[in-house]
Amino acid sequence: MMAVESLAAPDERLYDEFLARHAEATLYHSLRYRDLLLAVAGGEAEYLVARGDGRIVGVLPAIARAGSYGRVINSLPFFGSYGGVLSESAEAAAALWAAFGDRTASAGVAAATVIENPFIDGSAPSATLPATHGDERIAQFTPLEPGPSFRDKLLARIDGSARRNLRKAELAGIRVVVDNDALGFLERAHGEGMAEIGGTPKPAAFFAAIRSLLRPEIDYRVYAAKSGGAPVAALLVFYFGRFAEYITPATAGGHREQQPMAAILFRALSDAAAEGRGFWNWGGTWLSQTGVYRFKRKWGAEERRYGYATILRDPALLRLSAQELSALYPYFYVLPYSSLHAFGTVAS
Questions:
Q1: Residue ranges of the alpha helices (H) in 172-256?
Q2: Angle between the 160-171 and 260-274 helix axes, to the nearest 10 degrees?
Q3: If we measure between CA atoms, which residue out of 310, 333, 330, 335 comes closest to residue 320?
Q4: Closest to 338 in 3D by CA, of 346, 330, 212
Q5: What kind of fold does domain 145-277 have according to CATH?
Q6: How many Å apart are CA 86 and CA 341, to the nearest integer?
Q7: Is pLDDT above 70 for 254?
Q8: What span, in angstroms and rounded, lies between the C-alpha atoms of 274 and 145?
Q9: What's the sign of the alpha-carbon dihedral 81, 84, 87, 89?
Q10: Which of 44, 72, 122, 291 is exposed most, by the fewest CB atoms within 10 A?
Q11: pLDDT over 60 at 345, yes or no
């Protein structure tokens, strides 16, 4: 008999051990990332675990946030964090989806969304959890492999424009180092860069949570490109199991022509391969983000499509604008903005 229950604190060690047994487990499943999400996006963790023969045999991470229209559940919130099921059997997956469906149907739930994990078969909702709305993204990732020849293979794999950018950085005297103390520089440069393009920056709470909750050189690393001894660009990379995650890049204004980010990326991908990672995950790309898509492609990215599955329980949400939804449930995915009666655009 498969039992599904909420993860309790005494079982967190067993949860971690379950993840360690599965090569498909990602950062987004992890409890350290759960704690970061709670610190930044708020809400209440509702992590489900399936048990069989006394062991954890499946997990489904989710976080709920209360609001004026009711609770919104995401698996998972915050800039497209993946969710869905990781399990050892079809039986465990079915039990987890059934339990999650019960949660979404409970009183006070306004909407629930599962963001499919493109690296895990079966992480999308099954037919027993029908969505009322859907959305789609493009997952982009560069396969890695250990060995001294990877740098040459990477040079051959990337686009000619990326190789030219590497040469520009070299001629400009750009030097790349690992400098986890450069997180403050990264936060400032990221905020300035997002302001220039009208984008949504990651909040100060995100960078504070990294410092307090994550472990440098284990969970994350900051690569800094320096010119004349001063940082001019930086990149935050998260690590878990087989995956190196491209999280937050930033280049200081006035230094983009030197192409410091190209030098950072070549070093960071090469390091990840040498350390035995299997994938450099560039993250999800909107179908409309053609410039971002091309940038990742020129760094040797492969791709696959994945979905957002939303269950709408309160149709009153459709009458809100994108700006109102974003303000009521910050960092949570509520509905595809294109489904709203008063359609507006806000980066999520």
A1: 183-197, 204-213
A2: 110
A3: 335
A4: 346
A5: Aminopeptidase (3.40.630)
A6: 35
A7: yes
A8: 7
A9: negative
A10: 291
A11: no
Q: Which two tokens stand for residue 114?
A: 């599962």
| Other residues' Cβ atoms within 10 Å of the Cβ of residue 2 | 19
How many Å apart are CA 267 and CA 55, to the nearest integer? 40
Q: Where are the domains of the chain?
A: 3-137+307-339, 145-277
pLDDT at 215: 97
**pLDDT tens-place string over residues 184-196:** 999 999 999 999 9
Which amino acid, 226? K
Q: Which of 77-81, 280-284, 340-344 has the lowest mean pLDDT?
A: 340-344
3-137+307-339 maps to which CATH number? 3.40.630.30
Is the four-CA dihedral 332, 334, 339, 341 of positive or negative sign? negative
In whole angstroms, what is the distance from residue 224 CA to residue 211 CA?
17
Question: Token digits for 326?
Answer: 């974003």
Longest dimension (CA), the chain: 65
Tell me the pLDDT of the chain averaged across its residues. 95
Alpha-helical (H) ranges within the chain are: 12-20, 31-41, 90-104, 150-157, 160-171, 183-197, 204-213, 260-274, 290-297, 322-328
C-alpha dihedral sign at 6, 9, 14, 15? positive
The string over 309-318, giving b where at least 16 C-beta atoms fall within 10 Å of a residue's C-beta and e elsewhere, is bbbbbeeebe
Q: How far apart are CA 141 and CA 138, in angstroms?
A: 10
Supply the pLDDT for residue 148: 87
Give the tens place of pLDDT for each residue, 284-316: 999 999 999 999 999 999 999 999 999 999 999
> Does 3-137+307-339 match 145-277 in CATH topology?
yes
